[in-house]
């Protein structure tokens, strides 16, 4: 790639950043020369045991004897945990530093305290764990563990308070999005645990405006990842649990937390598939966030219900159900302009269920490492949409970056008909229009571009499909193509979870200007 091309990609990435992101990036640069360290605690009193209605237990990831399993990869450390372990990738190391295992089912209290003390001994050399995001999650998990176990430990409290005090100076305004929300959630937990008004003031200053912006009008999280939607909903439910059951600070955040959880639960109930799975659009994988059923039941324990049906709109997703078909389609922007770290080049992709089972699905996410697998899983080819000239509809690059991005205009938005156009291929001289509609008992998808294109369809592993002329025939459905020049089968990889990939059948349907796909 030429220097001018690199400059173009970089400029079309950073030009959307907010002024506050630039200021905090400059602050981060200066901190390289004037680093901030963990200081001795100045807390006025130790932590207090907080009250909680039972939350959702975390997945079992600690198996005793310093053996951990995250992201489908297990590591036994032996006598000493390596808190900087990165051989399985940085995300695995971050999960180790989150300490979510403290709140898994049947966690022994003394074992949990031993692991916390082991980390405290490592603190003078800690790098990964002192980044703001893992620091935030670890603080929440320590407080939940200490409170639910009835543990008073002044040594742990001292270090916990020092970490939260450091977090106040390391807030992730350079990233914003879910990272900044996690900082705010951690400070809110710290405020209640230590009865600290400084932590509370900072938490409130983050949470009120960020929740108003990040929770869209239809209840979806603005990063457009169903997985991160579930993660954020889980955390907001925990914060509501915290405020509702502990009488501090006048409970002034209770109303906004309840309001956001209600609408987020409504969005989740609308988009979750009939088998309980979330669609795997953008960065999304199973086994990371609590399931939809767990979140809905947790909300009910807290007295939170979604009383009205949500109409999907602002999140850019639409859900269509009729007969044996269930169709989830993306007709929205790839995400918030200034934070596209979890976006894929997947505009107009869809997932299809037939008789309650997944048939056509997106690729999912198996890694955040910067490698060919990550590049493929974010590419347009990996999704159920149209590719022109082998290009991505949005310029995804590195592990979490997007340069030029597809802009979407919805032309028709009816219950049984959706038509939208995006300009992701404008640089190639054409637009892509996709219409999805119910015609009698069929689904009709019409794609139009001003030149040759290729529509991709990716099927679930083990789905039995026969290519018969211009048709794909399954056990209880048939997909017929009008306008196809060639239908070419190939093998691709499905990634339902991190570090888990399965072979499946995919098809490339070449066409000239217009393709009509009938699912019947």
UniProtKB/TrEMBL annotation:
Family matches, as SUPFAM superfamilies: Chondroitin AC/alginate lyase (SSF48230)
Domain Heparinase II/III-like C-terminal stretches: 311-511
Sorted UniProt keywords: Lyase, Periplasm, Signal
GO molecular function, one term: lyase activity
Residue ranges of every copy of the Heparin-sulfate lyase N-terminal domain listed in the record: 141-287
Domain of life per record: Bacteria
InterPro entries: Chondroitin_lyas (IPR008929), Hepar_II_III_C (IPR012480), Hepar_II_III_N (IPR031680)
Chief place where the protein resides: periplasm
Entry keyword Transmembrane helix: no
Subcellular compartments: Periplasm
TM helices/strands, residue ranges: none
Protein name (record): Alginate lyase family protein
């Amino acid at each position: 790639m030429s220097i001018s091309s690199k400059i173009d990609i970089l400029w079309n990435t950073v030009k959307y950043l907010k002024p506050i992101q630039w200021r905090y990036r400059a602050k981060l640069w200066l901190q390289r020369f004037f680093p901030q360290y963990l200081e001795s605690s100045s807390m006025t009193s130790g932590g207090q045991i907080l009250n909680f209605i039972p939350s959702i237990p975390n997945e079992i990831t600690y198996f005793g004897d310093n053996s951990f399993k995250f992201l489908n990869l297990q590591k036994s450390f032996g006598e000493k945990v390596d808190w900087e372990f990165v051989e399985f990738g940085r995300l695995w190391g971050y999960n180790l530093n989150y300490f979510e295992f403290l709140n898994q089912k049947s966690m022994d209290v003394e074992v949990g305290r031993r692991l916390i003390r082991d980390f405290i001994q490592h603190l003078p050399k800690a790098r990964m764990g002192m980044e703001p995001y893992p620091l935030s999650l670890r603080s929440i998990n320590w407080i939940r563990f200490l409170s639910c176990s009835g543990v008073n430990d002044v040594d742990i409290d001292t270090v916990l308070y020092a970490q939260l005090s450091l977090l106040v100076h390391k807030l992730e305004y350079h990233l914003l999005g879910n990272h900044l929300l996690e900082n705010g959630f951690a400070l809110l937990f710290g405020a209640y645990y230590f009865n600290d008004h400084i932590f509370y003031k900072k938490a409130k200053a983050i949470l009120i405006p960020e929740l108003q912006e990040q929770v869209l009008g239809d209840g979806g999280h603005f990063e457009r990842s169903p997985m991160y939607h579930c993660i954020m909903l889980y955390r907001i439910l925990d914060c509501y649990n915290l405020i509702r059951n502990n009488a501090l600070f006048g409970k002034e955040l209770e109303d906004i937390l309840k309001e956001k959880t209600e609408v987020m639960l409504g969005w989740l109930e609308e988009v979750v598939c009939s088998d309980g799975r979330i669609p795997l659009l953008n960065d999304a994988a199973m086994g990371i966030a609590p399931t939809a059923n767990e979140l809905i039941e947790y909300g009910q324990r807290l007295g939170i219900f979604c009383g009205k049906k949500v109409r999907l709109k602002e999140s850019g997703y639409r859900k269509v159900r009729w007969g044996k078909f269930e169709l989830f389609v993306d007709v929205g922007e790839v995400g918030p302009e200034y934070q596209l770290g979890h976006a894929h080049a997947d505009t107009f992709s869809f997932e299809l269920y037939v008789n309650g089972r997944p048939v056509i699905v997106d690729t999912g996410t198996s890694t955040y490492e910067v490698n060919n697998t990550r590049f493929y899983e974010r590419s347009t080819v990996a999704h159920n949409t149209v590719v022109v000239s082998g290009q991505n509809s949005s310029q995804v690059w590195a592990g979490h970056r997007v340069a030029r991005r597809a802009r979407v205009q919805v032309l028709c938005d009816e219950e049984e008909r959706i038509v939208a156009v995006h300009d992701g291929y404008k640089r190639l001289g054409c637009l892509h229009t996709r219409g999805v509609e119910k015609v009698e008992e069929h689904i009709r998808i019409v794609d139009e571009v001003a030149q040759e294109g290729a529509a991709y369809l990716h099927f679930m592993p083990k789905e039995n499909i026969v290519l018969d002329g211009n048709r794909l025939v399954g056990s209880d459905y048939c997909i017929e193509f009008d306008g196809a020049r060639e239908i070419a089968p190939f093998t691709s990889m499905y990634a339902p979870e991190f570090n888990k990939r399965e072979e499946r059948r995919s098809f490339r349907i070449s066409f000239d200007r217009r393709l009509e796909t009938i699912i019947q």
